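Two proteins, back to back. First:
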Amino acid sequence: MENLRTIKSRLKTIGSIIKVVNSMKMVATVKLAKVNNTHRQAKVCSSMLSDMLWKAMRECALGKLPEQSPWIKRCLLYQTYQCKPLIIVLSTNQGFCGSFNQCILNVASELIGRHDRAYVEVFGKIGRAAITQRKPTVMEGESHQEIRSVSEHARYLSELAVEYIINHGVDSVFVVSGKFENILVQRGQVSTLLPVECNFEPSEIVKIEGDVWEFLNDILRMYLYETCVGLVTEHLVAEYSARVMTLDASVRNANDMFDRLQLQCNRIRQDRITQELTEIVSSIECML
């Protein structure tokens, strides 16, 4: 049986761990509420830009676009094959997410396995280390640290996709990220960022004044940016949700362990008190 000093030391350590984990849970909860609001706004904006892009494409003849805009054609004309895609993987820089990182890595590994000539861009320390270990023979792109703000991250992703389309001859861009199902379930998903799958259903007439290429260039970049904002924020919502649930379970387990140790400590203390009282009574009886 452990002595009283050892149990008290363990109680102190577990108490400190509970305080730290509770603080981490509080931070994740605040971040979740903040990014969830941004995600709802991004979805509305992305839907509006998508509808505007579809209507503009319906009125534009892509074959008449000038020669300086071949990347726009590749972005808007959906191909039935992907011979050289760009795969962007969004992971995390830290753990405490349960199986969230593992779900994303499984989806990413399966997608990379289907495209031998793919470029791979990985964001996050955990994803970078795991994918390098699993698929060391893929065509290497860049590996990045976590970018601070959502807007900065989304802008970088959208510009990265356009850069690969223009400079590397990429014909499609996939994003592997987290998907929020509910507070208890988060999984990995694959989203097709480019080319844009447009819906040519009948819509109201849109008249484009001025340079058609400049208009499509601007609206396409705006659409890519807002789509990336939606993907990044949904990924963060799933990550923070998984972290909150994991930390909550950790706090409950730590509290249960603390209660058991406290009970054991009380029992040992009571046994010692009882033993001392018994020795005192026995000594008094022997003296009478």
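And the second protein:
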Amino acid sequence: MKTIILSILGLSFGLFQLKAQDSTAHKVDFMVPPAAKKVVHLNRSDAALGISASTIAKQKTRQNPPVNIALFAVDRRTEGEAGNSDVVMVISIDQLSGKIKMSSMMRDTYVNIEGSGMNKLNAAFAIGGPQLAIKTINQNFGLDIRDYINVDFYGAAKIVDALGGVQIPVKTEELPYLNTYLQELSIYDKLPVVPITQAGLQKLSGKQAVAYTRIRAVGHGDAQRTERQRLVLIAIFDQLKMKGKEIFPVFATEVLPNLETSMNNMTLFSFAGSILNSKNKTIEQARFPLDKESIGKRIDNIWYLTTDLKTTSNSLHQFIYGTSPAKTKR
């Protein structure tokens, strides 16, 4: 929702019709004119994106390596407001099979932000926008991210509503916090709150789903909140698969206008082709740093999640490019 990448990748089917010719190519039949979205043009040089020569060399040794895309959801209530990235994810897409891996990056991770020094990972977006946020991930974790997608609270809610809501198993202990966040969101959009009154599998509206992903006081704090974010993302993917092409024109008119991205429509279309034609139904997911490789510390009276960045980078690469003991399945 803040975890919306899969709906984003799927929406391009509303712009184009895909017909598989082989595992790597698709025929394109233009259908619906693309709607406006906020396109941010990045400086795409390796240096500006923080992609090191060693990372590039390592990628060249891999056969058909997955494409890594950064997904952010900025803690922003009003348009134009600068904000920390409440969600930081790396979405890895296998170019041949369409298999997807989701890596949640803990937002409080203590990393070096170029020009700012050591800080929380989520601060990079507020300090230098998507360019610096991507650069920070690449520099600290040895990745080759070149594109991103970002949504704020209200854009995320509109996208979920365009899907008709998402099915989420809400726990009893989560209810009061979910409804509290709903009250907070209603202050900004001045619309009445529709509370969730019972636990169990619930169809959540856009605002309800956003409120659900913000819960952090139940369970294992921010770590469990990242699980909720991934749960909503998977529910969105399931909705796409279930609704099929009938929903794609809605994406063209109701999803695209709520996105900020460095990706053009044709790039979105290319990724959508590999994903939605994929026979892989299982989305692998993990959270970094791993619990065993991190510890919370107060530095200058501010709480950070500290880790050996080289160790965490190795674990992240193992998950994205190989087999990882950190991965969990639906």
